[in-house]
Amino acid sequence: MSLSTHLPVLGSIILPNIGGIANGYYFMGEIRQKGNESWYDKLKKPTWTPPKRAFGPVWTALYSGMGFASYLVYRECGGFTLLPLSLYGGQLALNWAWTPIFFGMKDFKLAFIEISVLSGAVIATTIAFFNVDQTAGLLMVPYVAWMGLATALTHYIWKNNPNPNSNPEKDGKEK
């Protein structure tokens, strides 16, 4: 098999990771710092919060799995298919949008709304993938599970932490 035979599968796996890597470097530098506590470290989080060092490897595996699943759907359908791969592209864009909302804007309420929509899009994509290729659907299951955890974590942070960008006096609240 030549390299050109493997390019579609490699591209499908690399593409989702590109957005994750870009978000990681742009928005997560402060979170990865050693020695000083970041604003993320100071948030009230539940006891079941995964350690920070787990997020990179987990997202790399999830992005690679969903990328390979998209390749299987593409291959099974003989090219681009409107519904499954449009859902995939939509959920991928939503996935990449969460990080700037949560870590960039620090808008926990909007991040929760966004991740709730994202979770629905991931479930819809998974169902569409199952309808085309069972293996592709199964590759999405860990992503669905992680999205459940991520959605619950985002909700907890929103409900248990003040918005760092809010002004209590402007909002009519006392300090």
TrEMBL record:
Coarse class of the protein's main subcellular location: membrane
Transmembrane segments: 6-28, 54-74, 80-98, 110-130, 136-158
GO biological process, one term: tetrapyrrole metabolic process
A single cellular component GO annotation: mitochondrial outer membrane
InterPro entries: TspO/MBR-related_sf, TspO_MBR
Membrane topology: Multi-pass membrane protein
Annotated keywords: Membrane, Transmembrane, Transmembrane helix
Compartments where found: Membrane
Family of this protein: Belongs to the TspO/BZRP family.
Alphabetical list of PANTHER family matching this protein: PERIPHERAL-TYPE BENZODIAZEPINE RECEPTOR, TRANSLOCATOR PROTEIN
UniProt-recorded name of the protein: Translocator protein
Source organism per UniProt: Eumeta variegata (Bagworm moth)
Gene: Tspo
